[in-house]
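ok posting inputs for the adenosine-5'-diphosphate job
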Amino acid sequence: MITLKNINKIYQQKNLSVHALKDINLEIKKGEIFGVIGSSGAGKSTLIRCVNILEKPSSGDVIVDGVNMTTLSNQELIKQRRQIGMIFQHFNLLSSRTVFGNVALALEFSNISDKSFIKKRVTELLELVGLADKHNSYPANLSGGQKQRVAIARALATEPKVLLCDEATSALDPATTTSILTLLKDINRRLNITILLITHEMDVVKRICDKVGVISQGQLIEQGSVAELFSHP
Ligand code: ADP
Ligand code: ADP
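and the output
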C-alpha cells in the first residue's frame, strides 16, 4: 500500500544543509499498522510528511496504492491526497468551526457540496469516533481526546485507504492515549485502513503496531515485526 524507495531529504538553508532522510526503503502492506520510532530530530516528521508530499523528497519514489506520488502534478496530488488521511499531535482543528463544521470541511475541500450527503456522512463519522453528541461544540470546549477524535473523523471523511498519524497521542495523558490507540486499532480492523504512525514512545508501538521501523539520524536502522524487534531471548 505504501512503498518508499531510496528516499533522501536534504533541507537547504542559507549556508547549511541538513540531510534529514538517508536512503529510506520501506514497504507497508494493506491493512498493516506500521510504526516508526525514533528520538527527537531523527527524521520521523520528515518521513511521514514525505508520504503525502507535504515535504517533497529530494530524491527517491513514494508509491501509495500504486500511484507514484513524486511525479504527480499539483492538481493530481490534491486528488490523490484524498486517499491519505492525516492526524497531528496538536489536532489542527479550526477553532472558528464546530465539530460538525471541522469534519464537513474535509468534504467541502473535496468539492462535495450536497448538503444532505454531507450531513449524513459527518453524522456517520462522528458516530464512528464516539462523538455523536458533540456536533455543535467548538474545539475550545473539548478535551484533548475529543479533539483528536474530531481530527480522526475529519481524516476519514474522504474514505482514505491510508491514515498517517504524526505523534497523534503525544499531547494526551495515558488514559486518553489508550482510548485513542483503541479507536485507531478498531478503525484499522473495521475499515481495513493502512496506518503509518510516528512516535517517540515505545509503548505506542508495542500496543498497536504490527511492524516497526527504528529511525536514527535519518536512517532506518532496523525494521521488522514488533515481536522480532522487541523480543529479549
Ligand atoms: P523528528 O520528527 O524525528 O523530530 P524531523 O523530521 O523534524 O525529526 O527533523 C529531522 C532533521 O531535519 C532535524 O535535524 C531537523 O532539525 C531538520 N529539519 C526539519 N525540518 C526542517 C526544515 N524545514 N528546515 C531545515 N531543517 C529541518
Ligand atoms: P501544519 O501541520 O503546519 O498546521 P498542514 O499543512 O499540515 O499545516 O495543515 C494545514 C491545515 O490543513 C491545518 O489547519 C489542518 O486543519 C488542515 N488539514 C491538514 N490535513 C488535513 C486533512 N487530512 N483533512 C482535513 N484537513 C486537513
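notes: The pocket of adenosine-5'-diphosphate (ligand 1) is lined by residues 11, 13, 18, 20, 38, 40-46 (CB under 6 Å). The chain is about 35% helix and 30% strand.
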